[in-house]
Design a protein that fits this description.
Blueprint lengths: L7 E5 L4 E5 L3 E6 L7 E3 L10 E6 L10 E4 L6 E6 L3 E8 L8 E20 L2 H4 L4 E5 L2 E6 L2 E8 L3 E5 L2 E9 L3 E10 L10 H16 L9 H13 L1 E2 L4 E2 L22 E2 L2 H12 L2 H15 L9 E2 L10 E2 L13 E2 L10 H15 L8 H15 L18 H20 L7 H18 L1 E2 L4 E2 L15 H4 L7 H14 E2 L2 E2 L17 E2 H13 L3 H12 L11 E3 L4 E3 L5 H14 L11
Antiparallel strand pairs: 1-2, 2-3, 3-4, 3-5, 5-9, 6-7, 7-8, 8-9, 9-14, 9-15, 10-11, 11-12, 12-15, 13-14, 16-17, 18-19, 20-21, 22-23, 24-25, 26-27, 27-28
Helix pairs in contact: 3-14, 4-5, 4-6, 4-14, 5-6, 6-7, 6-8, 7-8, 8-9, 12-13, 12-14, 13-14
């Protein structure tokens, strides 16, 4: 039985992550990295594709825990089960690793006596490879090809093999703890030193609390903001500073549909919004690491700039399908990799340059080669900004002259001008970039604005709308009180609105190369709140923000999209873009946002 996307909670160790369902089952875990093959893939298949459930003995399939929550300021999850014989708590987390990744699950009695059942079904290679499992010194070790995992409990409990799974049954009474540890390592290497689960719990709680205490945000809904920042931290690959767009692949934008993509990579366009939220919230180390990942990733010929990279900056992300997985809610195909990596999306040049301008303005120490990279990107963009592209929504239909792409070309030139004006000692031709900025501005206003309807459109010559045009006042292309901005906000709200939220664009009217529909896009809905605030409609902005907070699941997490009719979250989960947008809107409403909003 497929659990709703919103039934999952995230745990992770800053190199990979797992999703824990409300039924006590870990249904998604990639080891050793975010983009590695999953060893628990029930999320996209069924029980035979791998999962690990701990629940009271006799709990039916799909039966949920009574309540759950993260320990404040941490990524440590506590799930409570209340039964006729007593109450038990399951603590789930992944300690920040020294060598090998661990999943730790501690079962603790709260009252009475509860008999528990653990069912561990490892399936490497996205649920395709059944490992050989044997017992060594009271522990289980599973091996299949390059993968190996050790499984143990402290204290030891009765464990046996059944139906290609490892099962453990045991009672817990008030105050008693039984800890399970699953440790992965390459099968050709020696077994790593065992982790002390109780010590690991104390360290994890301490580490997360110390990190969360750095948050400078002190406005309304602080709990939701801190939870979003913790989620962004959890989606960070610590060795490189790269932030993945989501922890999953192929969670559908429409249940039963084909809009299923792999988001376990780093998108350049996320960089500006993410940097802004990290810098303003006080997380300078994370902002610096993300900026440095960005500089490494984009180094090279400007014509070879990609829209996304692997978490260590890898350039090749070939897309393929996994036919043995039936897909979440029968949504196929299940894809790994992402062919959009080969698209031309001119907006990313503006986003990269805007990110580096933002970092410089915020006082991050400048990298010596950063400005040279930006000049090379500007040279390329000057010669290519008039080309059609696939746009930020990565349509798989024909290339268009997308308005947002042109606006971001303007942003690139504008930030170059601002940088040279603030530091004339830097090399560069300020008049050249002013001329480019003016040319792009005229082009967009002449060709991308529909004077009859008073709104900017999705692409030149179209009547379709695009929620990305809500960013026009935010990036400073036009002032918020410009009638063209106000008209665009109204048009997007009226034509792309869905039960108060906002779609990216109309799938019925836009040829994006795919059948089917999708839900309201949560980041765009936050952008509407920003635009309402900037155009002086503060009460409406706050009301929309409050509405969006109700979309968060019971532990404060957001997917990419939401279906207001069914009340279901859609798309990959948790989605960094949604959480960045939540943080930035909260900062805007609290008067802490430092983005550029004055027209150039």
């Amino acid at each position: 039985m497929t659990q709703p996307i919103e039934d999952y909670a995230l745990i992770g160790d800053l190199m990979t992550s797992a999703l824990v369902g409300r039924d006590g089952s870990i249904d998604w875990l990639c080891l050793p990295r975010f983009d590695s093959a999953a060893c628990f893939a029930r999320l996209l298949g069924d029980e035979e594709n791998g999962h690990w459930r701990i629940a009271p003995l006799g709990a039916a399939d799909g039966e949920r825990c009574t309540r759950r929550a993260y320990v404040d300021g941490t990524l440590v999850l506590e799930s409570y089960w209340e039964t006729e014989t007593g109450t038990v708590k399951v603590i789930d987390f992944m300690p920040q690793r020294d060598v090998a990744p661990d999943v730790v699950r501690i079962v603790e009695g709260v009252s009475g006596t509860v008999r528990m059942l653990s069912t561990l079904r490892l399936r490497f290679d996205y649920g395709h490879a059944v490992p050989w499992v044997r017992r060594i010194d009271g522990e289980r070790v599973a091996v299949a090809g390059p993968d190996s995992a050790w499984f143990r409990s402290e204290p030891p409990v009765r464990t046996w093999g059944e139906d290609n799974s490892t099962r453990s049954q045991f009672p817990v009474t008030a105050g008693r703890r039984v800890a399970f540890v699953l440790t992965w390592h390459p099968s050709h290497e020696p077994r790593p030193e065992p982790t002390d689960p109780i010590e690991a719990l104390e360290c994890s709680l301490s580490d997360w609390r110390a990190w969360a205490s750095l948050c400078r945000y002190d406005g309304p809904h602080k709990e939701a903001v801190v939870r979003s920042l913790i989620t962004l931290k959890a989606l960070t690959y610590a060795p490189t500073g790269g932030i993945v767009a989501a922890a999953t692949t192929s969670l559908p934008e429409e249940l039963g549909g084909v809009r299923n993509w792999d988001y376990r990579y780093c998108w350049l366009r996320d960089s500006t919004l993410t940097l802004g939220s990290l810098l303003t919230s006080g997380f300078l180390d994370e902002a610096r690491a993300w900026r440095e990942w960005l500089l490494r990733a984009v180094a090279g010929a400007p014509a070879d700039l990609q829209i996304m990279y692997g978490i260590a900056g890898e350039r090749r992300i070939p897309e393929c399908e996994l036919p043995w997985l039936r897909g979440f809610a029968s949504s196929t195909p299940v894809r790994v990799g992402n062919a959009a990596v080969d698209q031309l999306q001119l907006d990313v040049y503006g986003e990269v340059i805007d990110s580096l301008h933002l970092a410089r303005s915020a006082g991050l120490p400048a990298e010596a080669h950063s400005w040279r990279i930006q000049l090379a990107l500007l040279d390329f963009l000057e010669q290519n900004w008039q080309r059609p592209d696939e746009g930020l929504w990565e349509v798989r239909g024909p290339r268009r002259h997308f308005v947002h792409s042109k606006v971001m070309a303007w942003v690139a030139a504008d930030r170059a001008v601002r940088t040279l004006e603030s530091d004339p000692s830097l090399p560069g031709e300020v008049n050249r970039w002013r001329a480019m900025r003016d040319a792009v501005h005229r082009d967009v206003c002449d060709k991308g604005f529909d004077p009859e309807r008073g709104t900017f459109t999705q692409y030149y010559g179209s009547r379709e709308l695009d929620a990305a045009t809500l960013l026009i006042p935010r990036v400073g292309f036009l002032p918020p009180d410009d009638p063209r901005v106000c008209g665009t906000v109204e048009a997007v709200r009226a034509e792309l609105g869905r039960s108060g939220l906002v779609r990216r664009y109309s799938t019925a009217d836009t040829d994006d190369g795919l059948p089917g529909d999708e839900g309201a896009f949560l980041a765009c809905s936050f952008w509407l709140a920003d635009a309402l605030y900037l155009t002086g409609r503060e009460d409406e902005a706050r009301a929309l923000f409050e509405r969006l907070l109700t979309v968060c699941n019971d532990v404060g997490l957001l997917a990419e999209e939401y279906d207001p009719v069914s009340g279901r979250q859609l798309g990959n989960f948790p989605q960094a873009f949604s959480h960045v947008a939540l943080v930035n809107t909260a900062l805007t409403l609290a008067g802490m946002e430092k983005r550029t909003t004055e027209a150039g």
